[in-house]
Amino acid sequence: MAFRLDASMRCSICAAFGLVLVFVWSALSDHTFNLRAALPESLITNPRAFFLLGILVLSVALAVKPNIPRTVDAVLGILLPFVGSVGTACIALAPHQSLFPPSMLCLTGLIALGAGYCWFVMSYGLLLARSGSVARIVYCLAAALTMEPFVRVSIESILEHTMQAGVAIALPFVAMALLIYVREGVERECAAQPDPDTGAADWRSMDREEMVRHFAPLISIALLLATVRSLSPIGTWDAKFDPVPMTSSPGLLVLYTVCVILFARFALVKFEHKSDFARLQPPFLLIALTLLASLILISNRGPQSSILYTVMVMDDSFAHMLFWAEIAYVVASASAPACRIAGLALAVYASTSIAWLFLLGDEDTLQAPVMIAAIVAIYLLTMAISQMNIGFKTHSRKTTANDGEDAVGTADAGEDAPLEDPITAGIKKRCLDISSEYKLSPRETEVFMLLAQGRTRAYIQDELLLAENTVKTHISHIYKKLDVSNRQEMFDLVFTPLQSDKDE
User: Which of 33, 115, 467, 484 stands 20 to 30 A from 434 (CA)?
Assistant: First the structure.
């Protein structure tokens, strides 16, 4: 039988290719154009700071105004890729024209390029995050990161300089076409999967503990990504420190690809449903160890080693995947708008990166003491936040339990108060019988038992350490297997036999 891709897989593949084009577009702006020819020698920072400024401006705007009307969103979907393309053209033409000051045209182009790049990565990232699966965004990003060197090197080796500039200018429009296809595919997926519960609470109703629990780890990971990128030549443009690229060796490309895929599978996806501490510690430690390996390599092999470059690119890719995996996790768990979550994370990343670039100036940026101190500080901060979140959850559960003990017999079916033990035991037995009869999976059975006890979706998410959209998916599958369309019909299925037994 012929192998056929389902709609979700086709959508994910197109998203990965779209991200490849966006990454290649950004990389060509660094590799193809001679920025130093257009910028003044007195520039006190790396030119990438202005690219980051474009990211910062747009991310702050989207964080402040996340609920963009559909008509405005459609206009921005066309305008911002066009702005990014024009910015690329400005950078390419800056040293070869006399109508405008070259430095002003180049810097304006860098800011426009950054805004367009930010729009694309946010759009692709948030569309993939809507599925509620961290695995989807991680694997798509891993595929894009591993394909980018092949595509970029192919363009640079086949095409002459002028043609490379033309390709860079055209890439945003191709990426936009793929983005439209991905958006339509994701919307069809969401329409085909009913939401069995009411919507999440408004983000303004989140208390301080919930805000810290959701956003503090995300901010610390944004700091990590900014630090990893800014303290190595991977995150600088036209850097004086420029090692031999890994594309010089097929073996290094294979090593890089394998390590990125293994990191995605065993450091991120495997720990998706764990607690914050268990979920963040493995990728953090691997990023720190990879960074340590790069420092050892620079001391033993020198700054121009292709192996060193491969390890640094690997570290950068690990940090990128962790960053977007955390965004997907928070989008699925928090009640804040997705654009506000991603905008806040990207704003922290961009502002921190700009601060690093201005602090370091135009010197070689691989400085071992600074890197070690910064990474250790961010790691300790993240682990402290994770432990604090465990305390928040424990306190929340104890409070819920105490409140429930005071309200036994008066709690509404939709409240998160515990029920009396005999009733709970009867409900659980009935749920196990139904689960066996309708062939629910073990995880679906756990969710079903909590639903039957009147637990809310937020409670189930916290109790089972699942993402919000994962809980929604389980509930949707449970309703489908039980052949019910809402919670009341599910209650009728569970409680009618129990009531009959009681009457008898």
Answer: 467
